[in-house]
Amino acid sequence: MRLLAILFAFMLPLAAMAAEKLTGEQINQAFTGNTVSGRYTGGGFFTEYHDPDGRALGNNGWQENRDACWITKGDSVCYYYGPPEERTTHCFTVELTERLYILRNVGDRRINAVATIELANPRNHTDGGKPWYCDGLISRGPQLPMSRRVAAR
Prior knowledge:
By secondary structure, the protein is an alpha+beta fold. 16% of the residues lie in helices and 34% in strands. 27% of the residues are buried.
């Protein structure tokens, strides 16, 4: 872990210089059905499987995800953590260097995290068999009938 932290510290300035900003469609293609893992610029590691149904399974860096969902909006990716009454929302643009993904806060454009993508779900992130609440946030593509949306699993 320490070596990874040192690697990110050296690569962050270089990565920020030679990055291509991804479109929403490119973000969808890269994230859907894969695991995004990385380090926040303020410290802490995260790893989240981006289920095609919109759930973000894994750990957001501080705790195991619960009612965590993801969508693309325009040319950014947004994450929703928690039930509606406690929900926090975080949106990022995504830039790609040769191998690293740079997530910038939509509001202030500061780099929030640097990540890599692992194909599929190699860390076996799950919902632990508990109901997961994503309500109407799953909005990429045609709207499904309410009975088919992920409201509880």
